[in-house]
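# step 3/5: fold
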Amino acid sequence: MAVGITVSKNTVARILADHGVEPAPKRGRTWAMFLSQQWQSMAAADFFTVEILQGWGVRRVHVLLIMRLATRKVHLAGIIPEPYQAWADQIARNETDEAHGFLREGDYLIHDRASVFGAHFQKTLAGGGVTAVPLPPRSPNLNAYMERVIRTIREECLDHFIIFSQRHLEVLLREYLAHYHNERPHQSLFNETIVKRRSSTAGPIQKQTRLGGLLNHYSRRAS
């Protein structure tokens, strides 16, 4: 009974079915509901590979990135030729460190089912107060924010360089991420930068470059 109108159980069941909602107590949370409820405390991790020209051959390395979904901040967690369990566990300890860890404020970390993200890795995260959320197999669309930022890094940075060493790759990534956070506008943030800066409306316009002129940024010089 509500505002004098009696609604039968069949009517309620039909309305729920029309909107794809199961009746209680069977009602479960969808992935979209989980993300929206935990958005401010969510982070995502993913690997991607980069080929390095070394000597007369090519060597492949793995890059691990972590992103805080609410702010879009991206952290370079590590670069390694082949990830192994002890290395991944140390990364988990580093990123949950109370003083300097990128995940020190995070409650949930979504990741794929790579072997190094297994029980040991998840236990180490839990020791730092972070809950691991493994994705279902073959579901990159559920980690779409990480997939998109990796594509952006490739298209706007790595695809333009021949990379000669792991150190060279790290320099490129750190320089690009500085641009990504401080200078690059993001559509999902209403064309604002991730790191907010006080902007001046007066003074001459100056051009700043990164990566040998590949990336350009324009701002007003304070008078």
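# step 4/5: annotate
Residues 166-182 form the longest helix (17 residues).
# step 5/5: archive (pending)
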